[in-house]
Amino acid sequence: MAHPGTLHRYAKKLTAFEHAPQHSSSTNNASNLILWIGGLGDGPLSVHYPTAIAKALPSNWSLAEVLLSSAYDGWGTGSLARDAKEIASCVSYFKDLRHSIKIVLMGHSTGSQDLMEYLVGPNSDSHIPVEGAIFQAGVSDRQGWAAVVADDEELKKSLKDTIELAKKWVEQGDGDAILQRKGNKMLEMFESPCTAYRANSLLSYGGDDDYFSTDFPDEVYKNTFGKIPKNTAVMFLWGSEDPYIPTGVDKWNTLKKWAGFVKEGGAKVDEANGGVVKGATHNLNGDPEDVVQDLVQRVVRFVEGI
Description:
Layout: E1 5-11, E2 14-19, E3 32-37, H1 49-56, E4 61-66, H2 80-97, E5 103-108, H3 110-120, E6 132-136, H4 141-148, H5 153-171, H6 185-188, H7 196-203, H8 218-222, E7 233-239, H9 251-264, E8 275-277, H10 289-304
Parallel strand pairs: 3-4, 3-5, 5-6, 6-7, 7-8
Antiparallel strand pairs: 1-2, 2-4
Helix pairs in contact: 1-10, 2-3, 5-7
């Protein structure tokens, strides 16, 4: 299927695909912008709902899907720090291209972790401020993989051994080395070669990727959600049918709790439009149209309020 739009090269070998405006009277040249960042294994057009958002946006907004080095099969040799640096380059490109525009970052799954790294990570002070951040399906890889292997003792042992091996390699300075997949039942489930650093980051308690786990003490959330910049409006979105949210977690109250830490830190949270999207799965691919449109209209209302 053809998707009309503009392909921007924002850095060497990195691009952002901006969907064509849907309004005949509008132009991309002065549009405010949603920069959409996908999750592990994703890249431009692999998740379908951003196209639906692009079609529904008001005439003064457009949406661009950002290609990062970690897109598609590149995630296993990447890091949130590298992703955030590339997102910063993309934000800078569009801010230079269109002076005074508003930018909202929207992350799906691990793209939400990228947003957190951009907003509160070690190098966040050097990043250009953005007007909004939408966290869609921000979930814990650590908890997700633990759930996947929970009923299989052999896989549980493989997960434990993998974490221990990855930590050992990182500690001895070999974090960039690729872990051997053959014979490792845990790593064989990955669809990408994976460094010891990224495996440790994704699977270990408190790893660099571990922003959205639901079992942290409050002090951790105060130092993540509570540090989101005051001038960045925030919205959390989870799907009621997302299989990667741990069983037994109260979705509504968890998002409300996280929103509370954001507000305590001085930033605003759109709780009227955020929350749990009834019937939505992780990335909404294949979900009923009314479910997709529920998410789409929440995003539209959010940017209209920016």
